[in-house]
């Protein structure tokens, strides 16, 4: 079995959309325009490919986006810098094989050299104890709860401290930015010139 974790490509989008919308109640449905927004603006959008088949994907955004999500807005109101995992989806045929942990390791290595916190939410209605336990064992702690809209589900808002960030900031980010190394730059999504991320004061991107 050949596994590759790589940046999403435009030709993947139809398969990503189908996979997202077949995932069940704990993953919010998307339409093509919403997925295109992620393709154009997400800081991290990677897919898992197994033997040429799309096996899953993870999307994450940093602070400063115009993303209209109540959970993303909650983190924006409470933390100045973070990477927010909007969704992770694994195809049914590849679940319970460790792909979730592989994705979380990969997004952590992306986030820990850029921000002090990795954030996400888990649904409490319906509650999935496997998902709750997964995040707890991976170092996430609950920092709040909220209901998504007037009639939406209750969610637990989670954050994980990234202790490596302080060293990276003091050693690199405050002195010219990250080194121009493939393992750092390959996961950096392109930005529009007028995007909020480009306008953040003091921000340097590889």
Quick overview of this protein structure:
The protein contains eight helices and seven strands. It is of the alpha+beta class and 206 residues long.
Give short descriptive properties of this protein.
alpha+beta; Aminopeptidase; seven-stranded mixed β-sheet; 8 helices; 7 strands; GNAT_dom; transferase
Descriptive overview:
- With about 210 residues, the chain is of the alpha+beta class.
- The protein has one domain (about 5-200): Gcn5-related N-acetyltransferase (GNAT) (Aminopeptidase, 3-Layer(aba) Sandwich), CATH 3.40.630.30.
- Helix content is about 30%, strand content about 25%.
- The protein is built from 8 helices and 7 strands, in the order βααββαβαβαββααα.
- The chain has helices spanning about 15-20, 30-40, 70-80, 100-110, 130-135, 165-170, 180-185, 195-200; strands at about 5, 45-50, 55-60, 85-90, 115-125, 140-145, 155-160.
- The chain has a 7-stranded mixed β-sheet with strand order 1-2-3-4-5-7-6, with helices on both faces.
- The model is unreliable at about 190-205 (pLDDT under 50).
Total DSSP helices: 8
User: What spatial form do the alpha-carbon principal axes imply?
Assistant: globular
Binned strand content: 25-35%
Q: Mean pLDDT, nearest integer? A: 88
CATH superfamily label: Gcn5-related N-acetyltransferase (GNAT)
Helix content: 25-40%
Q: Remind me, CATH topology? A: Aminopeptidase
Radius of gyration: 17 Å
Report the span from N to C terminus. Answer: 33 Å
Coarse structural class: alpha+beta
For the largest sheet, list the strands in their spatial order. 1-2-3-4-5-7-6
Helix and strand element order:
EHHEEHEHEHEEHHH
- Give the uncertain stretches in residue-range form: 191-206
State the total count of DSSP E strands. 7
Number of structurally distinct domains: 1
């Amino acid at each position: 079995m050949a596994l590759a974790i790589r940046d999403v490509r435009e030709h993947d989008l139809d398969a990503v959309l189908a996979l997202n919308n077949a995932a069940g109640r704990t993953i919010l449905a998307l339409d093509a325009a919403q997925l295109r927004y992620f393709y154009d603006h997400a800081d991290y959008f990677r897919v898992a490919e197994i033997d040429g088949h799309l096996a899953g994907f993870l999307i994450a955004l940093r602070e400063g986006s115009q993303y209209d999500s109540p959970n993303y807005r909650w983190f924006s109101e409470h933390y100045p810098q973070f990477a927010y995992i909007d969704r992770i989806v694994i195809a049914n045929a590849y679940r319970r094989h460790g792909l979730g942990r592989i994705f979380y390791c990969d997004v952590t290595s992306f986030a820990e050299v850029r921000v002090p916190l990795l954030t996400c939410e888990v649904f409490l209605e319906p509650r999935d104890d496997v998902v709750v336990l997964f995040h707890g064992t991976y170092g996430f702690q609950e920092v709040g709860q909220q209901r998504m809209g007037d009639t939406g589900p209750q969610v637990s808002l989670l954050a994980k401290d990234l202790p490596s960030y302080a060293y990276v900031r003091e050693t690199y980010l405050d002195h010219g930015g990250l080194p121009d190394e493939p393992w750092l730059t390959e996961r950096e999504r392109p930005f529009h010139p007028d995007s909020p991320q480009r306008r953040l004061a003091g921000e340097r991107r590889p």
